[in-house]
Structure formats: structure tokens, C-alpha cells
Amino acid sequence: MNIKSLLLGSAAALAAVSGAQAADAIVAAEPEPMEYVRVCDAFGTGYFYIPGTETCLKIGGYVRVQVDGRSDFDLNGQQGGYRTNTRGQIAVEAKNDTEFGTLSSKVTLRANTNVSNSYSVTVPNDPADPTAGSTTYSTSQANNDFYLEETYLQLGGLRVGYFYNYFDNGLPGETVLSDGGPGFGGGGFGGDTLNNSIRYTYDAGSFSVYGQVDAFNSQAGWKTDNGSDDEIGINGVVTGKFGGVTVDFFAGYDFDREEAAFASTLTAAIGPGSLGVFAAYSTGANRYFDASEWTIGAEYAIKVTDKFSIAPGVQYWDNIVFADGEGDQGDAWRVGVTADYKITTNLAAKATINYTDVDSGTDSADRWDGFLRLQRSF
């Protein structure tokens, strides 16, 4: 056998083996196309499409570490000292377009290491019989339990769920208190700002108006038709924007206490900062505003640099004790300053110090209070 015959035979054998192997080869299937998360810019920054849907989702929140301090306050027995607290909050928002307008929903969960939350309501067993006793319904969360904060659904201008009312808006500083008083005695100041409610808003851009119905203390107990308190309130806000000036007017009525509250906030861009003025009047203690008969406060938020701003403020309350009869019902005033510093993207520090002087008509006291806060938002 010569070399040429040997090479030809080897080539034929290799071809036969290769053909047999090719016939038995396993061909890998083509991978299915993946659907990557797409950015949704229809409702602002931070939204993305839920894969396979036209619903846009946004996940946000913050982590806050804070140290509070205060001096003694003899008027209601508060002792001075300090406390620390760490808070975590997560908010999930979902939006999509429908033939009726934008369908939105929001779920907010919050937990603190040093703040407990409890709600209760006491209902008489028989309002006509004082000896029949009463029943208290209550619910509470431990210091480190997650609990439900503002959570609602909205279709177009109609919102239903658990959300804040006007008196939680406030001014950007920490001195002017729109949702209540500076903690003097005589009752639970601060109003009832977070409830199960229904609201309709008409927004025309430079002009908007909303009407709202609130179910007060609706997180505790059954509401029965036994003559117990009617825990319903109605309120509305009209807002107008004129260039760099925004002004609104609020009116609310508490059906249980049969008292009304009125308030207005004005903000205006002036010079290197923004001036804010808040005023409120109450016909009597009610769940919208029960800090005083009337109050007025102002602050000026000054933007010193792109990262640093300060906001000095002052506020005055008159007739801080809602009681029957004539005479001096006391007053109070408060002055302070808040500083904000943007450390880097999504990380900021806030510090405030305030002085409050209270004259209840029969006694007087003063107090220093403030806090230092570090917050990472996302």
C-alpha cells in the first residue's frame, strides 16, 4: 500500500465518522427574548414599567437618625433631657392611564425605634344611661413595628383612603407649627391630621380647589348607631398661584364638636429666599385646629448656597385655653431657626433650635427645644 492510498483511506474514514456524529449532534435552542425593565417617564422621575404591564411603579423612602433635646417645662411637668430615634420609611406608588384619567395608588410603611403609635376611642354603652358604662376600642404598634402611614388610591381627581389633611402641610422650617401648638397644657394640641377620607380635587394649573370628608379616629373601633359621637368632618381648600406667589385658604367643620377652623398660607419668592406666612382661626376646640383661638406665624427661608439654607421663624398664639367664661385665656409665642445642609446627593442634615414662652393666664413657663437630624432619601 502506498502513501497516497493510505491518506485517501484515512480521509474517507474521518469523513464517515464526522458525518455520523453530525447526524447525532444536539442543537441548542435559541434563548427566549428577555423583557428588560423600561423607564417610565410619563409621571416624572423614578418610575419604571412593571414587566408585562403598562403600570408604572416607583419605590422610595428614607432612613432618618435623629437626636432630640429639650429643657424642663414646668407648665405641664415635662422634664428636660434628650432622646434618640431611628426611622425607616418605604413608599410604593403605582400609576397608569385609563379612560377616566390617571389611576394611582400609594402604600407607605414606617417604623421607629423610639416612638410608639396608639389610637383609642371610648363609646358609651347607652348614652341615655350614665350608669351603663362604656367600651374602649384601641389599637397600637410597638416601637419597632411597621405601621401604615399615608395610603390611598386615586382615579383622576378622586382620592379615597388614609391620607393627611391641610394642617399637615406646614412651612419648610421647624419653628412655625401649622398643625398645632408648642406643647403647652390644656389638651391634645395638633389636630387630627391623618384619617380615612375621601377627596375630590379640581386642578386648573394656576388655580385648584378640593373638597374632603374625614372620618376622625377611624382607625379604632366600630361606629354604631347608639347615639355616640358623630366623628365626621368636612373641609375644603382653594389655592391660587400668581407668578412667584402662592396663597391658599382652608375651611373645615367638625360635626361632633360643632366648631369650625379657618386657615391660610402664603408663600412668596423674595430676594435670596422665600417668605412664608401662616394664620389660623378656630371658633372653638375641634379636630382640625385646637391649639388656640387664633395664631399667626412667619418664616423666611434663605438659600445661602446651593447646599446650605437657614430659616428663622416666629409664631404667636392667642387664647390658648378653650374654656367657658370671660377673661384672660393665655397666650404664647415661639422663635427659632432651622438650618439645612445637603451633604451629597440624597444625604442631608437638618438642625433646629427654638424657644417657647407660654402664659396660660394663671401660670407661665418657657422652654428650649431642638433636634439634629441625618437623613438618607431614595
TrEMBL record:
**Localization in the cell:** Cell outer membrane
Report any Pfam family annotated for this entry: Porin_2
- The protein's superkingdom reads Bacteria
Biological processes per GO annotation: monoatomic ion transport
Q: Which residues form the signal peptide?
A: 1-22
What are the transmembrane regions?
A: none
Q: What's any one GO cellular component for it? A: cell outer membrane
Principal location: membrane
In what way does this protein cross or attach to the membrane? Answer: Multi-pass membrane protein
Q: Which UniProt keywords apply?
A: Cell outer membrane, Ion transport, Membrane, Porin, Signal, Transmembrane, Transmembrane beta strand, Transport
A GO molecular function held by the record: porin activity
Which family is annotated? Belongs to the alphaproteobacteria porin family.
Q: What does this protein do?
A: Forms passive diffusion pores that allow small molecular weight hydrophilic materials across the outer membrane.
Q: Domain comment, in the record's words?
A: Consists of 16-stranded beta-barrel sheets, with large surface-exposed loops, that form a transmembrane pore at the center of each barrel. The pore is partially ocluded by a peptide loop that folds into the pore lumen.
Q: What is this protein called?
A: Porin
